[in-house]
Known about the structure:
With 438 residues, the protein is mainly α. The chain folds into two domains: 1-217, no CATH class; 218-418, no CATH class. It contains 15 helices and no strands. The protein has helices at residues 2-52, 56-70, 73-108, 113-122, 132-140, 144-168, 172-202, 220-249, 251-268, 274-287, 291-328, 335-352, 355-361, 365-417, 423-426. Helix 8 (220-249) crosses helix 9 (251-268). It is globular and about 60 Å long. The relative contact order is 0.12.
Amino acid sequence: xxxxxxxxxxxxxxxxxxSLAYVALAIRxxxxxxxxKLVLINSIAMTGSMLTRLxxxxxxxxxxxxxxxxxxxxxWRDILSFxxxxxAMAALASxxxxxxxxxxxxxxxxxNPADIAMAExxxxxxxxMYTGWCAGVLRMTxxxxxxxxxxxxAALLRTAGVAAGFLLQLRLPYFLAVWxxxxxxxxxxxxxxxxxxxxxxxxxxxxxxxRGWGWSRPGLWSFTRAVSLNQSLNNVSxxxxxxxxxxxxxxxxxxxxxxxxxxxxxIIAPAQLLxxxxxxxxxxxxxxxxxxxxxxxTRQIFLALLALSVVLLVIARLGGEAIFALMAHARIPHVTSxxxxxxxxxxxxxxxxxxxxxxxxxxxxxxxxxxxAAVMLAYFPALYFATRxxxxxxxxxxxxxxxxAILLSCLIGMRLYLRGPQERLLNQPAxxxxxTSR
Length: 438
């Protein structure tokens, strides 16, 4: 597991450094207002993508791991084809959601017709923002080095494009084109490598995936719906928060909020490498009925992340303002407080890293989804009013409280469901853990 995390570490570090570089250059080229508009347009497209994503990579690993390990080629092909069809449907839906979102948000924010048209054109990138089944293939086959190659190439392209735009003093449409090109490149590389792997392993072709649309198996749809809803609530919250801040305070304030959030994510990025690696390993332990191992791995990782979180908060306190000033090319009042609170919010999500995958493989997706939905239902109104009355400080604090509530719900779930023997789970076949929250 840690070897695979090591493969990802190099790419994640390069991505974080490139992110700091291209954000700083883009702000210098565009100014906070136009950069804020770029952030808002990208956030709308990302929201459309995340709202419609079906977590096909989790479905592939959850149900396909046993078939892959046992050499059941036909069964594995059927599950992979199902996941590819899921992504195709999600891609079409993401395009429609993004187009509608661009039109509505542009009208509510009083953008001029040229900006709305530019935003609608960018919405066409939304179908390429998710590589679900590809990620599942790379993780299941332990080809994590391809993830590093893909993400690094996309980050370097975006950085080089932004640098060229900065030197040539180009404007917002060019920078949107750079963002779009890096997204399409990342998607193309994922598909290329994943297809090469499955063709070499099992002679699989993409055309085969679009046959047998009626095929399914018990638990596939219920698992996919439950885990997708939970992850959509998680993934979309940050982008919706940026849009609410932009709607309440303006594009420049949305840019500041996004920079603080991005800076916080960059600080915790290396530790988050465990997320894509941990889930497949927990599935293997579950399929092997090693319940003691599941608990032990989760406990050890949680305690290690808890210790690391203290270090990350100290880094944010000591260096947050300086890094922000370097990125934003501006001095903002109270920015140290904003950065520290956003790092605290990110730390809460970091501590969820070992908890959610374990509860998922143990069949407690319903519990996770209902708790996250309840927190989100309270978060967005609280964020809106906190932003209106207390500005960016209110937005950052409400985000931290939201993430803290989600962490608390996961800890409660661990307390409720992972005490004592697992007789109920032992009597169920591997890969078909009941989706319940009782």
